[in-house]
Automatic annotation (TrEMBL):
It comes from Smallanthus sonchifolius. It comes from the Eukaryota. This is Uncharacterized protein.
Length: 339
DNA sequence: CGGATTTGACCAGCGC
DNA sequence: GCGCTGGTCAAATCCG
């Protein structure tokens, strides 16, 4: 049961992908090396989702199967974009989550860790003011651990963590601004989230998670004040931001003058209007009993469960990367290129 | 009043 | 070195 469920979710597409890759594009053998991608991938799945293969967790698998798809992609999709024409998934598959892209490492994890440790050492001498030092402990951009997912609006709002917005920027090449959130569940938490609306499909939001939470997942959202500010009130200040033309913005003449924020509150305004979405599921405790992170989905049945080990384990597999095995998508879009 | 959002400014990384 | 761009800061503002 577990296996067919996962096959339905993942295996079939990635089977297709690696077959495409192996049979059609030997030019890229250097990229893959000589590893058995399929085998390694399956091992990775077991390694990273052991509970899904555990018969004690059949329920998890059963519910996961309703999610229809977990899309994971990366350079491989880019690599084979001109050649690979994925079979469109069932319509329901467009909903929920697409894990696009996990990292921006250019160096190895070990090197990054060493860098971090060294940076910490460099500052440890005057650690009495860690709050001021914290911003200086930034990784270089290309070393930031990064998880990118695509979600529908509902998936975005169902994120269990409490996020506080701290910035918004227009992004070159996108008509939508990018909003920056930090975790407000705990002071000093370095977790960050970026929310960006796909300009190819305004109903899709691209979430980029960076940094790690330094605290347990909240049992409930503990910062609802801000999140709920506009939930039950469709004020002109918080329009649903699916259509730039409808955007209401403050008249400040800023060059940014961006559409009103893609904020949790505005998104939830939209979600509430969707009759199929149960509001209470958006605030459900998404932490499972094993401490796995549960990514947002439409409802409880649609959460994707994975841990950091998931990606780390996959990256350790013979040099190929987790996101190397995936397919896309209902619109044949390769999510790296959102515009 | 406390906490969240907004938004212009600032800063650092990166490419040329 | 310079300019562009993205990420963050922080004061102002908003809202319950």
């Amino acid at each position: 049961m577990a296996e067919w469920g996962l096959h339905a979710i993942i295996r079939s597409p990635k089977d297709q992908l690696y077959e495409e890759a192996n049979h059609q594009h030997h030019d890229h053998e250097d990229y893959f090396g000589s590893i058995d991608i399929k085998k390694e991938y399956d091992q990775a799945l077991v390694f990273c989702f052991p509970h899904l293969f555990d018969h004690h967790h059949d329920h998890d698998v059963a519910t996961t199967s309703t999610m229809e798809t977990v899309h994971v992609t990366d350079e491989l999709n880019q690599l084979y974009k001109p050649f690979y024409n994925p079979i469109p998934p069932p319509p329901a598959a467009v909903d929920n989550i697409q894990i696009i892209h996990h990292h921006n490492y250019h160096d190895s994890d070990q090197e990054i860790q060493q860098d971090q440790e060294q940076e910490i050492k460099n500052f440890s001498g005057s650690a009495s003011n860690t709050s001021q030092l914290a911003p200086k402990l930034k990784k270089r951009k290309n070393q930031q651990k990064r998880v990118v997912v695509q979600v529908r609006a509902a998936g975005l709002s169902s994120d269990p963590w409490a996020w506080r917005k701290y910035g918004q920027k227009p992004i070159k090449g996108s008509i939508y601004p990018r909003s920056y959130y930090r975790c407000s569940s705990s002071k000093g938490c370095m977790a960050r989230r970026q929310v960006e609306q796909s300009c190819t499909d305004s109903s899709i939001y691209i979430l980029a998670y960076t940094g790690d939470h330094n605290h347990p997942q909240p049992t409930r959202r503990n910062s609802l004040a801000g999140i709920n500010r506009n939930r039950f009130k469709a004020t002109p200040k918080s329009p649903v931001n699916n259509d730039v033309g409808k955007t209401v913005s403050k008249s400040k003449g800023s060059p940014f003058h961006s559409p009103t924020t893609i904020s949790a509150s505005s998104i939830e305004d939209e979600v509430i209007q969707q009759p199929n979405i149960k509001e209470e599921t958006m605030f459900h405790n998404n932490c499972d009993d094993q401490g796995h992170t549960m990514m947002p989905g439409i409802n409880d049945e649609d959460y994707v469960v994975f841990s950091d080990d998931f990606f780390e384990g996959l990256e350790d597999l013979g040099g190929y990367k987790m996101e190397s095995s995936s397919y896309y998508s209902s619109s044949n879009q390769y999510p790296h290129v959102f515009c």
